[in-house]
UniProtKB/TrEMBL annotation, chain A:
This is 3-oxoacid CoA-transferase subunit B. Pfam families: CoA_trans. Belongs to the 3-oxoacid CoA-transferase subunit B family. SUPFAM superfamilies: NagB/RpiA/CoA transferase-like.
Automatic annotation (TrEMBL), chain B:
GO terms for molecular function: CoA-transferase activity. Keywords: Transferase. Gene3D superfamilies: Glutaconate Coenzyme A-transferase. This is 3-oxoacid CoA-transferase subunit A. It comes from Christensenella massiliensis. Belongs to the 3-oxoacid CoA-transferase subunit A family. InterPro entries: 3-oxoacid_CoA-transf_A, CoA_trans_fam_I, CoA_transf_BS, NagB/RpiA_transferase-like. The lineage of its organism: Bacteria, Bacillati, Bacillota, Clostridia, Christensenellales.
Length: 230, 218
């Protein structure tokens, strides 16, 4: 399994039956392919859909049904379309249970930077600021480092998306919780030692008595993912 | 009251310095017929465009922007329109970004007769610069003010002659929120039908908000 699918699979285990979930673009989108058996979630797209399904098949695209990335998608039975003000009332109003986003940087205070790199072209924050402030639980899903550089820091240096919002960080190396005391190491991926994770992390890790092994094997394997079950 | 007109006629109402609210989310629900008419049949200059994203490299907004007649942009995501990105670098003050939900709510507030609202989104980020911050129940909020337009350009899937609009799927997005928030509202509809042909239960935008109705060309 490649790194990204490994991370997505572990993130998928965080989802509970009935959760309303918003997945960011890129790696977080892959979480939908790994939702465990017996868990059904409602995927929200911020341009106004509750109950999105998989990407539209070639030749069956509907120009009026697209996701926030502008790609043609499908919707499941029971889906709902709303306008942007209502969509963000859902998001800001705390009706999204979990949002999964990538990060450029995340720090030990739960600060998140994922919308701009100073000096580079600014794409705009889109719905990211609303999502991380409004969702009940914020999970950052990303590779642990960027070409060897730390992404998990004592303090973000890039402009923030929001302050103190991240609950859990899931990477190819570890599962880390943001706590009032700092970053708590919960799980380590097989093949790594605590020292490896600490070296790859730009902030001190708090080590509990028991550290789990990142497990992805109880995930649903093959076929249609359960999230698409209508 | 006859609302059906041509795109060319409808955009003649746009004046120099107007603020245009333009519906759509990337290509979904983008009023391409009306934007093309602004490009070809209007000479209004010094325009401010309020749009979630100012479209993509393939939609008509970038062609209008190439003329230099759009001097100010208010948006939330501009990563798909390279010209807006360039504008932000060349003249940083000409592009104002808001979180997407804040942008939607600023428009909604304007249409709903509200001066503004307090939102927790943007606290602790560059978004809070220069804004009034207040604490409610131990949490910090920013004051965001309503955002009105002179003209709104919107696309509907189906509209009746009175202007009642049905917007299908994810094309409602910003257009439905902008309709009550501008002085002069133009809708391009893929299909125009007689009054009574749209189920009243399925109207996305009531016709009372709509001033002009144009047949969409594509």
């Amino acid at each position: 399994m490649d790194k990204k699918n490994f991370i997505a699979k572990r993130v998928a285990q965080e989802l509970k039956d009935g959760d309303v979930v918003n997945l960011g673009i890129g790696l977080p989108t892959m979480v939908a392919d790994h939702v465990p058996d017996g868990v059904q979630v409602v995927l929200q797209a911020e341009l106004g859909i509750l109950g999105t399904g998989p990407a539209a098949e070639k030749g069956k695209e509907d120009k009026d049904i697209v996701n926030a990335g502008g790609s043609c998608i499908t919707v499941l039975p029971g889906a709902v379309f709303v306008d942007s003000a209502a969509s963000f009332a859902i998001i800001r109003g705390g009706h999204v249970d979990v949002t999964v986003l990538g990060a450029l940087q995340v720090d030990e205070k739960g600060n998140l930077a994922n919308w701009m790199v100073p000096g580079k072209k600014v794409p705009g924050m889109g719905g990211a600021m609303d999502l991380v402030v409004g969702a009940k639980r914020v999970i950052v899903a990303m590779e642990h480092t960027a070409k060897g550089n730390h992404k998990i820091l004592r303090e973000c240096t890039f402009p923030l998306t929001a302050a103190g919002v991240v609950d859990r960080i899931i990477t190819d190396m570890a599962v880390i919780d943001v706590t009032p005391d700092g970053l708590l190491l919960r799980e380590i991926a097989e093949g790594y030692m605590v020292n490896d994770v600490q070296e790859a992390t730009g902030a001190p890790l708090i080590l509990p008595e028991e550290i789990g092994v990142m497990k992805t094997n109880e995930c649903f394997q093959g076929g249609l993912p359960k999230v698409w079950k209508g | 009251m006859e609302k059906i007109t041509t795109a060319e006629n409808a955009v003649k109402k746009i004046k120099n310095g107007d603020t245009l609210l333009v519906g759509g989310f990337l290509q979904a629900g983008s009023p391409e017929t009306l934007i093309r008419a602004v490009l070809e049949a209007s000479s209004a200059d010094m325009l401010t465009v309020v749009s979630n994203d100012t479209g993509t490299a393939e939609t008509n907004m970038i062609r209008l922007m190439e003329t230099g007649r759009v001097t100010s942009v208010v948006a939330s995501y501009i990563g798909a329109n390279p010209l807006t990105g360039k504008m932000m670098i060349d003249a940083p003050g000409s592009v104002t970004l808001f979180p997407q939900g804040t942008l939607a709510e600023k428009l909604r507030a304007a249409g709903a007769g509200l001066a503004g609202f307090y939102t927790p989104v943007g606290v602790g980020t560059v978004v809070e610069e220069g804004k009034d911050k207040r604490e409610f129940d131990g949490r910090e909020y920013l004051l965001e003010t309503a955002l009105r337009g002179d003209v709104a350009l919107i696309r509907a899937t189906k509209a009746d002659r009175f202007g009642n609009c049905f917007m299908r799927g994810s094309t409602k997005n910003f257009g439905a929120v902008m309709a009550p928030a501008a002085d002069y509202v133009v809708v391009e509809a893929e299909e125009i039908v007689e009054v009574g042909e749209i189920d009243p239960e399925l109207v996305t935008v009531p016709g009372i908000f709509v001033d002009a109705l144009v047949q969409a060309e594509d």
